[in-house]
Design a protein that fits this description.
There is one protein chain. By secondary structure, the protein is α/β, with parallel strands linked by helices. It has a single domain (5-316), classed as Arginase, Chain A (3-Layer(aba) Sandwich), CATH 3.40.800. Helix content is 31%, strand content 16%. The chain is built from ten helices and eight strands. It has helices at residues 62-69, 84-87, 103-119, 134-141, 173-179, 201-209, 216-222, 224-235, 267-275, 299-316, and strands spanning 42-47, 90-95, 123-128, 147-152, 183-193, 212-215, 240-245, 282-288. It has an eight-stranded parallel beta sheet with strand order 2-1-3-8-7-4-5-6, sandwiched between helices. Strand 5, helix 6 and strand 6 form a beta-alpha-beta unit. Helix 3 packs parallel to helix 4.
């Protein structure tokens, strides 16, 4: 770190500027251009794109509402006693460039942006966007060596294609990432899977490649502590990515998402699971599939940025 601790970027204090005032940024942090982010340890990034959506659209609006909701985030984690903004230099480094009219061009633009993020030595913590956003991020992070991954999700996103053979949707990113060699399937754990499926092809793909797929029924039956211990053991201390699809939560807690599935985790359970990732070598993370048009209350966005803060705290300890 090149900055002394007392010179790290800090959120705008709520006792100086009311939380409903000022320019919206992630967690009220300074907005720093990527080309000026050389001293940033963890970059908060928006990916306002949902070109891979197959059901209810709207996650392209997620980053903007999540920035607004993140005004409620404060400096200290009440349970972990972590003050992330004292441990790492954190800033909002803007949105990845996207193309809402061309899926393949959008994937290319996002990947090139994250190439620059990685080259700058910044660890990305991103807000999507639909889950296809994770693919170009993994391409950048896993280019030289495939990374492990812990995925909280109602769906495996290991499908081969959708609707007459489309290979790139929010249901296919991790099949592509494994095929491209940027994601290590034997160090990939999926937690919270549930809901009906078209067939078993995604499960067969996962089993063939060694992905650990944990249904929510199994996670609950074994206990969340044991489930997270198992996940930690699988990814080990090597480089790991964490992806949190907001639909891993029950729709009662996160109705604003594209493909809601009944019977999910509570927000409290999700927070407890994320806290058990403490100490892992997390080189990047995302929270995706927040769709503001389907939750005018903003509670889904609040749940999303709450999970981002949980991830930020444990990432800041290992910068």
């Amino acid at each position: 770190m090149s900055r002394p601790n007392n010179d790290f970027y800090q959120p705008v204090p709520g006792l100086e500027v009311p939380r409903f005032a000022g320019v919206a940024s992630f967690m009220r942090l300074p907005q720093v251009r990527l080309e000026d982010a050389g001293e940033v340890d963890i970059g908060l990034i928006g990916v306002p794109w949902d070109g891979g959506t197959t059901n209810r659209p709207g996650p392209r609006h997620g980053p903007r509402q999540m920035r607004d909701a993140s005004a409620m985030i404060r400096k200290v984690h009440h349970h972990l006693k972590i003050e992330p903004f004292k441990l790492a230099n954190v800033a909002d480094i803007g949105d990845a460039p996207v193309n809402p009219a061309d899926l393949m061009d959008a994937l290319s633009r996002i990947e090139k942006f994250y190439d620059q993020v990685v080259a700058a030595g910044v660890r990305p913590l991103s807000a999507g966007g639909d889950h296809l956003c994770s693919l170009p991020i993994l391409r950048s992070l896993g280019r030289n060596k495939p990374v492990g991954m812990i995925q909280f999700d109602a769906h495996s996103d290991l499908w081969d294609s959708y609707f007459h053979g489309s290979k790139f949707t929010h249901g296919t990113p991790f099949a592509r990432a494994i095929e491209e060699g940027v994601l290590d399937p034997k160090r990939t754990v999926q937690i919270g899977l549930r809901g009906g499926v078209y067939d078993w092809s995604d499960r067969e793909f996962g089993e063939k490649h060694g992905v650990t797929m944990i249904d929510i029924e199994e996670a609950v039956a074994n206990g969340l502590d044991d489930t997270m211990k198992r996940a930690r053991d699988i990814v080990g201390d090597d480089e790991t990515y964490v992806t949190f699809d907001i639909d891993c939560l029950d729709p009662a807690f996160a109705p604003g998402t594209g493909t809601p599935e009944a019977g999910g985790f509570t927000t409290r359970e999700a927070q407890a699971m994320l806290r058990q990732l403490r100490g892992l070598n997390i080189i990047g993370a995302d929270v995706v599939e927040v769709s503001p048009p389907f939750d005018a209350s903003g509670y889904t966005a609040l749940a999303g940025v709450t999970m981002m803060f949980e991830l930020l705290c444990i990432m800041a300890e290992r910068v």
